[in-house]
Amino acid sequence: MRIDLHTHSTASDGTDTPAELVANAAAAGLDVVALTDHDTVGGHAEALAALPEGLTLVTGAELSCRVDGIGLHMLAYLFDPAEPELSRERELVRDDRVPRAQAMVRKLQELGVPVTWEQVARIAGDGSVGRPHVATALVELGVVDTVSDAFTSAWLGNGGRAYAGKHELDPFDAIRLVKAAGGVTVFAHPLAVKRGEVVPEAVIAKLAEAGLDGIEVDHMDHDEPTRARLRGLAADLGLLPTGSSDYHGTRKTVRLGEYTTDPEIYGEITRRATGAFPVPGAGGPVPA
Question: What is the pLDDT of residues 186-217, one digit of tens each?
């Protein structure tokens, strides 16, 4: 089985609609794909309605968190989307995204970049606006060559010249809330140093003690030595090591299924979940 547990659609900052994403996942030869838009489950219904035969959908979200001043992302899988406390926290984060993006636009304008809020809003469309939309505006203006080039200290990286903060969950609270909603948590790209400061391994150990289920090991922002280090850390801490594309459509160069999760690890994730369950497309494989 080919399993990709981290993708984004136009419900947040991807360029594929949820329906396009599941169609493209099937065309890429995936058996399982997780839709994990930023702080929203808004794309799930469309993805489920369009789910093709032979593809199983894992519902999820990527939660914005911060600890000790350092931003991090927590992948949450198969939680009950109607659980009120977790739903309320996701709403708080989403509500803060527009003023945060507007603040970044103002900072860029102060740096002499002719970006406008109207441009960023057009790029975001109906999605949950975020830094990648602002980064895409910088690409359109020729300020940077790629979206990834905008995520540096010179521009939108954590602590960068045009960076602006937003409401974010404490990751320990995120783990508690997701577990209360029957879900499973995986720390996304934990050592992606090119994105900015990362949390120390001691914090990952504390998160593991608090109930973190896994860490994303195989990811485009981790080089081979980093993956080996994370694989060893996962073994030491009893965490599930996952692999995922973090696909954003044309906004990034990574392809669906470029990095995948071992079927045994996927099976353990599904066994731990009680809030929701993987949904096979008509005639698709029944998950472990």
Answer: 999 999 988 878 999 999 999 999 999 999 99
First and final CA of the chain: distance in angstroms?
Answer: 11
Q: Give the whole-angstrom CA distance, residue 248 versus residue 132.
A: 9
Token pair, residue 27, equals: 């065309």
Identity of the amino acid at 269: I
Q: What pTM, to 2 d.p., does this model score?
A: 0.88
Mind giving me the DSSP string for 131-185? Answer: HHHHHHHHHHTTSSSSHHHHSSTTTTSTT-TT------B-HHHHHHHHHHTT-EE
C-alpha to C-alpha distance for 204 and 198, rounded to whole angstroms: 10
> What digits encode the pLDDT tens for the residues 211-251?
999 999 999 999 999 999 999 999 999 999 999 999 999 98
Give the span between the Cα atoms of 129 and 103, in whole angstroms: 12
Point out which residues pair with 184 in neighbouring strands. Answer: 77
Cα angle 221, 80, 12; round to 5: 40
Q: In degrees, to the nearest 5, what angle opens at C-alpha 16 toward C-alphas 145 and 105?
A: 45
As a whole number, mean pLDDT of residues 150-159 equals 90
Q: How far apart are CA 262 and CA 277, in angstroms?
A: 18
pLDDT for residue 278 = 98
Q: Residues near 165 by Cβ (< 8 Å), separated by ≥ 6?
A: 66, 100
Measuring CA to CA, which residue among 89, 34, 30, 90 is closest to residue 58? 34
**Percent of the chain whose predicted confidence (pLDDT) is above 70:** 98
Helices (H), the chain: 18-27, 44-49, 84-95, 97-110, 117-124, 131-140, 147-150, 171-180, 201-209, 224-237, 263-272
